[in-house]
Amino acid sequence: MLRADLHLHTTASDGQLRPADVVQLARKNHLNTIAITDHDTTDGVEEACQVANNSPVVIAGIELSAEENDTDVHMLGYYVQPENAGFKVALSQFQHDRLNRGEAMVAKLAALGKPVSWARVLELADGGSVGRPHVARAMVEARHVESINEAFDRYLHHGGPAYVSRKRMSPEEAIQLIHLAGGVAVMAHPGLVPDYLVILERLAAAGLDGVEFNHPRNPATVRENVRAIALRHNLIMTGGSDFHRQGDPMGAYTAPPESLLALRERQALY
């Protein structure tokens, strides 16, 4: 039986397991295919592919941090080509922007009397993309908060006292970048996007290839609506656990069996 989890994060971004360990866990969960979809980077893909040796099959993926009106509208890219020149330049700029943003959040925390070490934030990122979860973990270690959730709720949420906005990429721009890299563009976790119905209709006209149907934060109503829109606009329905750490439900939210072939057929167009 084909089992594919197409939304997995590693230490290359804000996941807590190295790519090799994610592959090993995927084997334990009897997954045939996985996609490494780190935030704004493909740095975890090569290690995962080498360790997996096609068991499971590893799809080169990414999750681009697109945004609209201060709302995250993340875009998953599948079968991207990491060596594409234009794609590499864009990702390099993303990493530079993430470092600047992280430093700015640390400076804000210091001004609020909640100092954390920038060097420790970088250690927690372990050479990967720096993000708010790394700052939050540093805050927990410094005993400014008791949990990562508290760090976000009190300081790091959109509009929070230590929040720093990032250079924005629109969902349409994310779709274009994924296509530039030869990949297939899929809107991530619509259940987390308040006006996902309106956005999906618009993005379908802008070249969107698919939408994440199975996801821990997609309730039944969202899945029903997504299915209707997907059928109306010929969008591929995918699925994934959005895995970040031990205890996350890897393999519990899999892609529909027909989605892999559909993704490959769509990728051939780019």
Structure description:
The protein has 270 residues and is an alpha/beta fold. The chain has a domain at 4-89 and 174-267: TIM Barrel (Alpha-Beta Barrel). The chain is built from ten helices and nine strands. The protein has helices spanning 19-28, 45-52, 85-111, 118-125, 132-141, 148-156, 171-180, 196-205, 220-233, 259-267; strands at residues 4-8, 33-36, 57-64, 67-68, 71-72, 75-78, 184-187, 210-214, 236-239. The strands form two sheets. Strands 1-2-3-6-7-8-9 form a seven-stranded mixed β-sheet. A two-stranded antiparallel ribbon has the order 4-5. Strand 7 (184-187), helix 8 and strand 8 (210-214) form a beta-alpha-beta unit. The radius of gyration is 18 Å and the shape is globular.
Summarize the structure.
The chain has 270 residues and is of the alpha/beta class. It is 43% helix and 14% strand. The chain has helices spanning 19-28, 45-52, 85-111, 118-125, 132-141, 148-156, 171-180, 196-205, 220-233, 259-267; strands spanning 4-8, 33-36, 57-64, 67-68, 71-72, 75-78, 184-187, 210-214, 236-239.
